[in-house]
Amino acid sequence: MNRVCFSLLFVGIAVASSSPAPNRVAADVVPVPQTIVPKRMDDVTPRNVVFILSDDHRYDAMSFMGHPLAKTPHMDAMAKNGVHLKNAFVTTSLCSPSRASILTGLYTFRHRVIDNQRAVPDGTVFFPQYLQKAGYKTGFIGKWHMGSANDDPRPGFDYWFSFKGQGQYYPPGPNYTINENGKRVPQDGYITTVLTDKAVNFIKDNADADQPFFLYLSHKAVHGPFTPEPKYKSSLADLPFTLPPSSVLLTDNLRNRPRWLLDQRNSWHGMDFPLHTGSPVEAFYKSYCEALRSVDDSIGSVMQQLKDLGIHDETLVIYMGDNGYMFGEHGLIDKRVAYETSSRVPMLMQCPEILPAGTVVDEVVANIDIAPTVMQAMGLEKPSYMDGQSFLPLALGQEIPWRDYFLYVYYWEQNYPQTPTHFSLRGDRYKYTTYYGLWDTDELFDIQADPMEQNNLIYDPEYADVKQQMQTRLYDMMDDLGGMEIPLNPPRGRQQNKRLRKRDGVKSADFPEAMVVDEPLRKELK
Ligand SMILES: [Ca+2]
């Protein structure tokens, strides 16, 4: 699957070196222009695109993946009738940063929406602005969640239906309202259904227009606290459940796991004190999968509307999650970290007119690729400043240059101090993660031999060269992409920093065995 590393920004990472190159010159980072100039592709007929995003849906929670709890017939149908991009990732596993990457085509260190607390910087360009400028009809329906101060319509959309922050599964009171094109309207019922109804109406209203449409349907579900629709509540309660093997408590650190990881187990984002409750992970997981059933129904409703209007086969539909989620993996809940279950997302695509049914794409695709992909489907060239690349050719079976290494970044949040800043590089076989600004261990995994990331190879002499190559490549890549500075923000909001005493809450984890010595290392100094 590895093809020649692709051009422009990624030229600098094509060749691995075993030691840092002091005279290396980083590739130029193309700045984001402030004028929107869409460039049409002569050889592409623009088509309608529906992009459906869900919240916190992990990559494997679909029934066709063999998941023990999820029931997702419409997602299964998308994979059967279209394309399953089975190695889909997000560049930062967190709601706002991931959404900003989808909308800008940029890495987090470039769009600078580094957490869930802050607004988008002035001057940010969202890719639907190009679509709108090209004359297409654009609609945004659902969770925006970049800036909680207001839910005013954002640039790039002809139709707008959105709410502040996370939104609500049910209206919290009689006066709760949603912003529809600048007017306050009540939320009439369960949020997934409300958003789906608006989406279906948008498609109906725009199907006969002279120009194609772009719909961005952005679900609140399945973000916690997980609230299933009444018809699905407790529908999975009786299914058997087992925690993942990586959830087993380690009472020492002979396997050289990071201290922060072992400490996080007893925290807001750990399975021993999840969200500071005593609730079992099993109950969380089942509610999550029950809420997901309504998202799956939403896909079914959109598909049915496309069929009813006779535009099903010509419309490109993309489904993805904004980040993964852990239910006991590594002793954690939640996302943020670079581990597979957190950074991987479901990605499905369907367009029977052009995409062969049952296609599986192996290449690593990401949230930064959505903007270029949608733009290509609508006959517009990708702006050169974007970090991502259209994966439409991959789905068509075309041989194109593609990334061979994937960069992941996460920036420490004062609100959730359990998870450190980290940078991670994932190739076909190895994954290297460094935790920055922390006296702790880095990690190296052979993800082919050890897909659950349990055996840290970072201290194994046999892998010293691999570690060095991955480290060099990671920093070269960040240099080329403009990621060598860490964005900072002042504290804001609550800090979830508590531990539960009865679960060893006053003790910190052991240092990794490889970092502990029994004798002085410099015996010549008395
Ligand atoms: Ca999310």
From TrEMBL:
<keyword id="KW-0732">Signal</keyword>
<feature type="signal peptide">
    <location>
        <begin position="1"/>
        <end position="16"/>
    </location>
</feature>
<feature type="region of interest" description="Disordered">
    <location>
        <begin position="486"/>
        <end position="526"/>
    </location>
</feature>
<comment type="similarity">
    <text>Belongs to the sulfatase family.</text>
</comment>
<dbReference type="GO" id="GO:0004065">
    <property type="term" value="F:arylsulfatase activity"/>
</dbReference>
<protein>
    <submittedName>
        <fullName>Arylsulfatase</fullName>
        <ecNumber>3.1.6.1</ecNumber>
    </submittedName>
</protein>
<dbReference type="InterPro" id="IPR000917">
    <property type="entry name" value="Sulfatase_N"/>
</dbReference>
<dbReference type="Pfam" id="PF00884">
    <property type="entry name" value="Sulfatase"/>
</dbReference>
<dbReference type="InterPro" id="IPR024607">
    <property type="entry name" value="Sulfatase_CS"/>
</dbReference>
<feature type="domain" description="Sulfatase N-terminal">
    <location>
        <begin position="47"/>
        <end position="379"/>
    </location>
</feature>
<dbReference type="InterPro" id="IPR017850">
    <property type="entry name" value="Alkaline_phosphatase_core_sf"/>
</dbReference>
<keyword id="KW-0325">Glycoprotein</keyword>
<feature type="compositionally biased region" description="Basic residues">
    <location>
        <begin position="495"/>
        <end position="504"/>
    </location>
</feature>
<keyword id="KW-0378">Hydrolase</keyword>
